[in-house]
Amino acid sequence: MTTEAIPGERKYVYAFGDGAAEGSGEQKELLGGKGAGLAEMSLLGIPVPPGFTLTTDVCRAYGNTGGQYPDGLGDQIAEHLSRVETALGSGFGSAERPLLFSVRSGAAISMPGMMDTILNLGLNDEIVAAASDEESGRFLRDCYRRLLTMYGDVVLGVPYEDFYAAVQEAVASAGCDSDQELSIEALDGLIARMKEILAEHGQEFPQDPQEQLWGAIGAVFESWDNPRARQYRRIQDIPEDLGTGVTVQAMVFGNRGEDCATGVAFTRNPSTGELELYGEYLLNAQGEDVVAGTHTPRSIAPTEGEAGLAARFPQAYETLEEVCGILERHFRNMQDLEFTIQHGKLFMLQTRAGKRSGPAAVKIAVDMVRERLIDRREAVRRVEPQHLVQMMAPVFELAERQRAVDEGRLLAQGLAAGPGAASGRIAFTAERAAEMAQEGSVILVRNETSPEDIVGMHASSGILTTRGGMTSHAAVVARGLGKPCIVGADDLVVDDMAQELRVGERAYGEGEFLSIDGSRGEVLSGLLRAHPSEVTTALLGDGSQPRSEAVEAFVLLCGWADRERRLGVRANADTPEDAQVARTLGAQGIGLCRTEHMFFHEERIAWVRQMILARDEERRAAALEKLLPMQQEDFEGIFRALAGLPVTIRLLDPPLHEFLPHGEKALARLAEQMDESIEAVRDVAAGLEETNPMLGHRGCRLGLTHPAVYEMQVEAIVRAALAVAREGLSVRPEIMIPLTGVEEEIVRLRQLVVDRVESLLEAAGSSLEILVGTMIEVPRAALMANRIALHSDFFSFGTNDLTQMTYGYSRDDVGRFLPSYIEEGVVPYDPFERLDVDGVGQLVEIASRRGRMARPDLKLGVCGEHGGEPHSIEFFERCGLDYVSCSPYRVPVARLAAARARLAFGAGGFAEGLDGPVVA
Ligand code: PEP
Ligand code: MG
């Protein structure tokens, strides 16, 4: 195919269809996913109606110039349009042989439903009136009222609901069951009513098809920047400058009678990953009806019998199966397809990599390796960390579910569209869901969701819709977000006016509790206790049960990830039980054991309090004496669980005041235990109060002012290590000093630790290697890393405190302003959740570099919350850290994220990317 732009002029328009294309599937950045997919299908000889794609360059030019098109675009469009006319023997604007177009968006990364689409473009009063027979008269009117709705909504800004209500009224007054049954007269009435609606909003539908085309193209480009698309990009981390392509494609019609249909299909089941043709279709309808969730479609599965696609359209079904096979082999990935059957003949309108649930992602990746479609490395790239999070998400306890069912609390059964269980309070609008989610978990309950709801969906723990199918907006978006989701629960009625969810006689209002099981499709009233997922149960069980295929696939994939990653993965664990979980889930050590968490045990806290409030050193020593064996016992448990692997134990960190009792009763009990008056105890406690405890007397500052506490802890560690070593197990303790900011702090505390260790080992006549290092969580420590490293065997970045102190945001008070900061775009995300690479990241990088400059063998790790967050892990990989440490249940996710980061950045490491801002 040849259509060169005029020499010297940039090419903005690419043709496709009829077994040929100017672009290809490789050009997603330029043509958008839809344009590239259509080009590739055309090249593969798959039946695709002809059309052309305007490139994302046009979108960027349009955005940058406030709505101007580049020179020459008009001519290129005109030329391509006339080629489609010639190919089809019809004319755009012709009343005898009208050619209609769809105008659709398509970015390089799919943003389902976020941008706009207009179908049936090119109709007007004259063309409709010229229909030659009753069949085409009815059909053109059906198309026209759809065009008025979409054009009115998308281009002219008239609310969609007004048109939707007009359709409902027309159906009701005609006394038929659906809009598909409206007569010619009823459709004429509906068209007239829609024009009135436009006029009520001061708008008029342009009769000139050319004007329609330009209006539609402009609207699609504008939709790149609509608020919901922007929010979706923010949530999904899609770059702002990608831009959308615009695909203008000759319409084929699924609404042209009972031998026509439209549908969506997946080449594998997107919920389970099973290799089966999966999807939905609607008879005598257009694509938007399926996606918008306004009609509940039928499954295309052969098991549907008479109503199934295979029975009704055997020829088209066979072609669809063939096309699926070709596309899967070609793209080596599960595809999400849109198709239309016009008078029994199949046409493909879209192909893209299909969104899938966590279990499906893992199964498909593992199966495709077995089918030799992809290699293991590619399988690791295909599965996102979020997919594993989903597989480890809790499910409802079976007994509790049964009780709820027996109590009649099973309200409805819908389609299991997004796996996982969620309980929370009902919210009926996305706005309320976002607000209420700040107070606790929320279930968003709607008849159907629309792209506008993205923020509320993101904030909700689960999503429930009464309408729609597995490919409705709610289902697709929920799967993408990893949320439990049920759609099409049509026994339920959502009354938006009354703000009520009704089932039979019962009604539930906003704020009432609801539970959904997105794996079974069950909606239950009230709260249900959740329990660990199949994967978690199987991995942490005693191994006596055979593992399911899903669990095996999970384990296999994590193993493949381990082969690819460089970063070690440790866990933050404070008890032997947590340490055991971490080990089982693949942790290669403990990166942070917060010793103070052990202090809160019921039988310990009294001694901790007595130690803190002791009037003299003698009493303090007595309290410490009591605590020592308790700490030792815990450490022994952890060393045993991690036999042979490193265990980093942090000495006491929080301000002492945190351990003191609240309330008079507790104070009185403590006074009695201490044999002191209440007043005396209260006075000492009051003396410990601080205005700003986070920046106060804590961490190594405590160690220097109360050395006996650290000495006791070191003794407990050494004794525990020796005891476990005597059992024949190897132990690798690492002692970590928190909150260092000044070189002298680490100098003195290292000396304290080393002296204590040496004297204990000498007394025991044993030897043991114990590393002594520090956390880097004060900005000054990061800057002084070259000095601090001289006295440290390792650094562990405490990115929670480092973030707090770099931003000057109190960790405990950010809830007051951070949500609105994020909402308003002041900051792009919560820096306590995802590492702020630009700012805090600089400190991590500076400290790593300066630390290693002073001491090349310095070990580097991170133990703040960011150690389990995939974006942050990517940064730590580039930064050249040795390991990340995260909560035990996060370990598999971190293993995968570390592998993906390594695959993305290769062995190149960090230096190139982030050299710039660093002051060496
Ligand atoms: C940190 O600050 O990142 C850290 C791990 O310590 P904590 O959260 O206990 O202050
Ligand atoms: Mg800290």
Task: Provide structural commentary.
- The structure is a single chain.
- The protein is α/β, with parallel strands linked by helices and 920 residues long.
- It contains 38 helices and 32 strands.
- An 8-stranded mixed β-sheet has the order 13-23-22-15-16-17-18-14.
- It is elongated and about 105 Å long.
- The model is unreliable at 908-920 (pLDDT under 50).
- Bound molecules: phosphoenolpyruvate and magnesium ion (MG).
- Magnesium ion binds next to helix 33.
Protein traits:
binds phosphoenolpyruvate, 16% strand, 8-stranded parallel barrel, disordered C terminus, 46% helix, alpha/beta, 8-stranded mixed beta sheet, elongated
Topology overview:
Elements: E1 13-17, E2 20-21, H1 28-43, E3 51-54, H2 56-64, H3 73-88, E4 101-107, E5 117-121, H4 125-129, H5 134-155, H6 160-174, H7 184-200, H8 209-223, H9 227-236, E6 244-250, E7 261-266, E8 278-283, H10 287-291, E9 298-299, H11 309-312, H12 314-331, E10 335-342, E11 345-353, H13 358-370, H14 376-382, H15 385-391, E12 395-396, H16 398-406, E13 410-413, E14 415-418, E15 421-427, H17 430-436, E16 442-446, H18 454-459, E17 462-465, H19 473-481, E18 485-487, E19 493-495, E20 500-503, E21 506-509, E22 513-517, E23 522-525, E24 530-531, H20 534-540, H21 549-564, E25 568-572, H22 576-584, E26 590-594, H23 596-599, H24 602-613, H25 617-641, E27 646-650, H26 664-674, H27 678-688, H28 700-705, H29 707-726, E28 732-737, H30 743-764, E29 771-776, H31 779-783, H32 785-788, E30 794-797, H33 799-807, H34 818-823, H35 840-854, E31 859-862, H36 870-879, E32 883-886, H37 891-905, H38 911-914
Parallel strand pairs: 15-16, 16-17, 17-18, 25-26, 25-32, 26-27, 27-28, 28-29, 29-30, 30-31, 31-32
Antiparallel strand pairs: 1-2, 1-3, 3-6, 4-5, 4-6, 7-8, 7-10, 8-9, 10-11, 12-24, 13-23, 14-18, 15-22, 19-20, 20-21, 22-23
Bound molecules: phosphoenolpyruvate (PEP) and magnesium ion (MG).
Residues 777, 798, 800-801 line the site of magnesium ion.
